[in-house]
Design brief:
The complex is a heterodimer of chains A (790) and B (247).
Chain A (H helix, E strand, L loop, with lengths): L9 E2 L5 H6 L11 H4 L1 H14 L3 E3 L7 H4 L6 H19 L3 E6 L14 H17 L4 E7 L2 H14 L4 E5 L13 H10 L4 E5 L4 H14 L4 E4 L5 E2 L6 E2 L3 H14 L3 E2 L7 H10 L15 E3 L4 E3 L7 E5 L5 H8 L3 H13 L4 E5 L7 H15 L4 E4 L3 H10 L5 E6 L2 H13 L3 E5 L10 H17 L7 E4 L12 H14 L5 E2 L11 H15 L3 E4 L4 H13 L7 H11 L13 H7 L2 H14 L2 H21 L5 H21 L2 H7 L3 E6 L7 H12 L3 E4 L6 H11 L3 E5 L3 H17 L4 E5 L5 H6 L4 E2 L3 H12 L2
Parallel strand pairs in A: 1-10, 2-3, 3-4, 4-5, 5-6, 6-7, 7-10, 13-14, 13-20, 14-15, 15-16, 16-17, 17-18, 19-20, 21-22, 21-23, 23-24, 24-25
Antiparallel strand pairs in A: 8-9, 11-12
Helix pairs in contact in A: 3-5, 3-11, 5-6, 6-7, 8-9, 9-10, 10-11, 13-14, 14-15, 15-16, 17-18, 19-20, 22-24, 22-25, 23-25, 24-25, 25-27, 27-31, 28-29
Chain B lengths: L1 H6 L8 E6 L9 H7 L8 H17 L2 E12 L4 E3 L5 E2 L2 H6 L3 E10 L2 H13 L1 H32 L3 E6 L11 H8 L1 H5 L2 E2 L5 E2 L3 E9 L31
Antiparallel strand pairs in B: 1-2, 2-3, 2-5, 3-4, 5-9, 6-9, 7-8
The chains are: A alpha/beta (790), B alpha+beta (247).
């Protein structure tokens, strides 16, 4: 039957929940337990759907995962096996039909948005899927997913637990986004790349509201498209939710969607066998439209897709520690604030994608790369290019990434392709291909083209389409290889004529070893763009380079009417600035009034005439003291305290630039580790404490939020800290705080622990074994002073 | 519908309503409330005041107003309280007291959606002042929207000849946070408004609230006293001179 997928219409069943409610399912009951407690009811529902014309039954296993079944006395295996078995029996009795293993969302958000670790989600799904596959399911249907990351976890779990076809449908709102913000293009791009057999939409909306969404899915999808809508929108009525679209009206909408190209149907909330019967009737003599293969070169985050080839797209290169001391240091101490700031700066200056690299000796590359991915993805929607030559780090990075990443890179050496292509395929990534083979970098454009051919052909064997390959024909420096500069450029149109691959180049390599690099960089970038470069990898914070791209977009008719060129010219003149300080203002005033930009400039100015320490002692410390006193006396409040602290931080940043790392370390008043405990995601308070402690010269190791007990202990040992600060906001997470305190005192008896958070009191802090209770950030400073001495 | 309902004596008709609306202009989303969550005095300085206004506008722009509420008929014994036709119970003395003399309850949930969550996170890493202000604005807004939903419920109750109690949320008094799970399930809140729950019973998106409103024939004094609240000792939000807080 699945062979006919996309050549004939295929019909799933309708709602299970609705049917069970009619048979007495109460709110609070777990419907999946009916597989064991009332199998006859489930069997009857299946049978009714088959009789109505459903060809694929969905087993009653939607929420049969470990977290939900905890405490019920039944195992995942028992419940899933029973569910699949009942559906199998119904199909057998009917004489035909297939059984889809129904898999729904876990109901809790994955980290970093929530607290469920990605691998834990994969393992929850695997338990269900392994049991379902062994019990004889014919395919896996992942449905009602709102979070793209969860869809990825489920699809990976499906691929790892069984060799069955995988269908996946997601739930959208009327604004064409899921609850977690994924748009249709992003969903289609990733699901398709992850290798599902069919994809589409279910639940959330009635058939009329879902139709425009289906149209959008069809626009991008090269796979058969599924739609299983609700029976309209929910209305109030007696005790059950009632839906407002009847079977005939529903079937009419199904017919319209079939005309558009949807080829697999079924029903979600509120639908019954009558709906299936009706939709079969209206499509009786019809054939589905042919599915066209769309060829889009695109990568994505979970909420944003970047398409290559239609316009110039910039990949920001700055998150690479090679030759960048400040980033090297940040990665070593895992200062993710630095990483995040760099990411924001690049995005704000026009980067569309960010390259990230953690390749440093003595760095656990795999861990740091994964951390960078999660930190950046937790606050920015920008897609990432994962840059590593370590296959293990690449695998873990691609796996944990939310969206469709770019793997950087593969080359034409068999060892490279053997290592990288399986990962690219499995995790649905794009890949950057360098035109290098066993003989090294080729001298001619022709040879580059030949190598691209080799790579594209090998990729095809893995099922990786050429549009997922970004080709890098390699820039050689003009100082060393002047003759080959034009060869690289000449190869661009040749490669693009032969293959549907976007071209990427790290253009700034051109000028190594020559004076006035910016001149060469700008000129070369303009030349490369004219030759057909699609994706420069460059420093987007360099205004000159971005200006070149803006100008190119006008001259090549990409920027219609020069609209964005003109806009960017305007913002140069009228950038919004903070209110100018009064002329006589000194640095202390500026800190007290929270004028960040002015304070930065003033500090730079002062550095011409004063020693850094003098600036700190004469201006910054007195200002901080004054702000602190005002806060304590209730003259100013939290917002002003933070504003002043951020301002003095700005001043410190300027000063730090003239210090070496050693000197900075010497200035440290002591090292403190901060974390929001496992299970808790409220970290504003902790961030405030961090900022204020930094102001007073303490060096902070910030582990972020939702930090497992073991990680706190391990890092406290590694960093050899004398003081640890823990925060928790919920009564439910104070328990993990207690566990963390106990584990710390066992591993590091001399290390002091301070705790804080809205539900804590000093008595409570004492009860859970903490040494100090910090009622606010200022209190934290007092405690630090006690521990480290003034 | 109103007249039909009035005819049915002593019955508060079953309702199960969800919505995704524009934020009404007249919700009680006031600067005063934002300052209260910031533990700051309103108008203490100009810069902050300007920022607060900006942040209130930004939150209004990015927040959604998604809600769901569902009626339940109360069945109770001396020691526990539960709804008819459901399998879970509401543990604790406080909710028992809160719903005393109530014939019905309305379970509700409101969320500002994921965008607010993402924006606050972005600023808490890039501009902490703004992050803190936006967080307080979002708290004030979600409470204001709860008031709006509560008003919808009050009107429905009134049409049927009933009064309502203030809302009571998991985590108030001795009503444990763990009751979030069955309440959200009762509301089908994941499918209706995209509400997730963490293993520590934290609602996600964070700027969301679930609550229970009692529906009763008895008119009750709507104010509650801070001194009776379990958070009285540690509460930083108590309103001087006024009875009750946003809870």
């Amino acid at each position: 039957m699945l062979d006919k997928l996309s050549r004939e219409f295929l019909f799933f069943d309708g709602a299970m929940g609705t049917m069970l409610q009619r048979r007495g399912l109460k709110a609070g009951e777990i419907p999946e337990l009916y597989n064991i407690k009332h199998p006859e009811k489930i069997r009857q529902i299946h049978q009714e759907y088959l009789e109505a014309g459903a060809q694929i039954l969905t087993s009653n296993t939607f929420g049969a995962h470990r977290l939900k079944l905890q405490g019920t006395g039944y195992s995942v295996r028992e419940v899933v096996e029973a569910g699949v078995k009942i559906a199998r029996e119904a199909v057998k009795a009917q004489g035909e039909g297939l059984v889809a293993l129904g898999i729904g969302p876990i109901g809790t958000l994955l980290s970093p948005l929530g607290t469920l670790p990605f691998e834990e989600a994969v393992s929850l799904f695997k338990e269900q899927m392994e049991a379902g596959a062994q019990a004889g399911a014919d395919l896996i249907l992942i449905e009602t997913i709102s979070d793209l990351y969860e869809a990825k976890a489920a699809i990976i779990a499906a691929k790892e637990s069984a060799d069955l076809p995988v269908f996946c449908t997601m739930t959208f709102q009327e604004d064409h986004r899921t609850f977690t913000g994924t748009d249709v293009l992003t969903m289609v791009t990733l699901l398709q790349s992850l290798g599902v057999n069919a994809l589409g939409l279910n639940c959330s909306l009635g058939p009329a509201q879902i139709r425009p969404l289906a149209e959008e899915v069809l626009r991008y999808s090269s796979l058969p498209v599924i739609v299983t809508a609700n029976a309209g929108l929910p209305r109030s009525g007696e005790t059950l939710a009632v839906y407002d679209v009847g079977p005939e009206e529903y079937a009419e909408e199904v017919r319209k969607m079939a005309d558009l190209g949807v080829c697999v149907f079924g029903g979600c909330c509120g639908t019954t066998p009558e709906y299936i019967q009706e939709m079969r009737r209206v499509l009786r003599d019809k054939q589905p439209k042919r599915v066209e293969v769309k060829r889009l070169s695109a990568c994505s985050s979970s909420t944003k897709t970047v398409v290559f080839g239609e316009d110039v797209r910039v990949i920001g290169e700055r998150l690479n520690p090679t030759g960048r001391k400040s980033l090297q240091h940040a990665l070593k101490v895992r200062d993710m604030d630095f990483v995040v700031r760099e990411a924001i700066a690049q995005k704000d200056t026009g980067a569309d994608v960010l390259n990230i690299n953690a390749g440093l000796p003595d760095l656990k590359e795999k861990d740091v790369l994964a951390l960078m991915i999660q930190e950046i993805q937790s606050i920015l929607p920008i897609p990432l290019m994962i840059d590593t030559s370590n296959a293990e780090a690449m695998a873990s990075g691609l796996r944990i990434y939310n969206g469709k990443p770019i793997a950087n890179s593969v080359n034409a050496k068999p060892s490279s392709m053997d290592a990288i292509f399986p990962l690219v395929k499995k995790y649905g990534a794009m890949v950057t291909a360098l035109t290098i083979d066993e003989d090294g970098v080729p001298e001619t454009a022709e040879k580059r083209l030949e190598i691209v051919g080799k790579i594209v052909e090998e990729a095809r064997k893995y099922g990786i389409p050429e549009e997922d390959i970004l080709v890098d024909p390699l820039v050689l420096t003009a100082s060393a290889e002047q003759k080959s500069v034009l060869e690289t450029l000449r190869s661009i149109p040749m490669i693009k004529a032969a293959y549907k691959v976007p071209i990427v180049l790290g253009t700034s390599n051109i000028s190594y070893g020559l004076p006035r690099r910016h001149l060469l960089n700008n000129t070369y970038l303009a030349m490369a763009l004219a030759y057909g470069l699609d994706v420069p990898i460059t420093d987007s914070t360099n205004a000159g380079l971005m200006d070149t791209i803006r100008a190119f977009r006008v001259l090549s008719n990409l920027d219609e009417g020069g609209a964005s060129y003109i806009e960017s010219s305007a913002t140069v003149d009228t950038q919004k600035k903070e209110a100018p300080p009064k002329e006589e203002s000194n640095l202390a005033d500026m800190i007290i009034r929270g004028l960040k930009d002015a304070a930065g400039k003033k500090t730079e100015e002062l550095l011409h005439s004063l020693q850094p320490l003098e600036i700190v002692q004469r201006w910054i410390i007195p200002a901080l003291d004054e702000v602190g006193e005002k806060y304590d006396s209730g003259e100013i409040f939290l917002p002003q305290l933070i504003q002043s602290a951020e301002t003095s931080k700005q001043a410190f940043e300027v000063i730090k630039k003239v210090f070496s790392n050693d000197e900075t370390a010497k200035q440290s008043a002591g090292k403190i580790l901060l974390a929001t405990v496992q299970g808790d995601i409220h970290d504003l308070g902790k961030n405030i404490v961090k900022l204020i402690l930094e102001n007073y010269g303490y060096e902070i190791v910030d582990l972020g939020r939702d930090v497992p007990v073991e990680t706190v202990v391990q890092r406290a040992v590694e960093e050899d800290v004398k003081l640890v600060g823990l925060s928790a906001l919920m009564t439910t997470t104070v328990f993990t705080m207690e566990q963390t305190v106990k584990a710390l005192s066992k591993a590091l008896p001399d290390t002091q622990v301070m705790v804080g958070g809205a539900v804590l009191t000093s008595e409570y802090a004492q009860m859970i074994g903490a040494d100090y209770y910090a009622k606010d950030a200022r209190d934290g400073v007092e405690i630090a002073r006690k521990v480290f001495g003034r | 519908m109103g007249t039909e309902r009035q005819k049915r004596e002593d019955a508060f008709a079953p309702i199960f309503i969800s919505g995704d609306e524009q934020i009404p202009h007249d919700v009680p989303f006031h600067k005063r409330e934002v300052y209260r969550y910031l533990m700051a005095r309103e108008g203490a300085d100009e810069t902050t005041d300007r920022l607060v206004k900006e942040c209130m506008q930004e939150i209004r722009r990015i927040a959604r107003y998604q809600y769901v509420y569902r009626q339940a008929k109360i069945a109770s014994t001396d020691s526990s309280i539960f709804f008819e036709g459901v399998t879970f119970e509401l543990p604790g003395k406080d909710i028992h007291k809160h719903l005393a003399h109530c014939d019905y309850a309305v379970v509700m949930a409101v969320t500002l959606g994921i965008k607010v969550e993402q924006v606050i996170r972005y600023y808490s890493r890039s501009d902490l002042t703004r992050g803190v202000l936006l967080d307080a604005c979002a708290t004030a807004l979600v409470e204001a929207l709860c008031d709006d939903v509560q008003e919808k419920v009050r009107q429905l109750a009134e049409e049927a000849g009933y009064f309502i109690t203030p809302r009571w949320s998991p985590g108030y008094g001795d009503l444990p946070l763990t009751v979030q799970a069955p309440l959200l399930d009762y509301l089908n809140a994941f499918r209706r408004i995209g509400l997730y729950l963490s293993e520590s019973s934290i609602l996600l998106p964070r700027k969301s609230v679930s609550a229970i409103i009692g529906v009763t024939k008895e008119k009750r004094e709507p104010r509650r006293r801070c001194s009776r609240c379990h958070l009285f000792e540690t509460c930083r939000f108590s309103r001087e001179g006024e009875a009750g807080c946003a809870r």
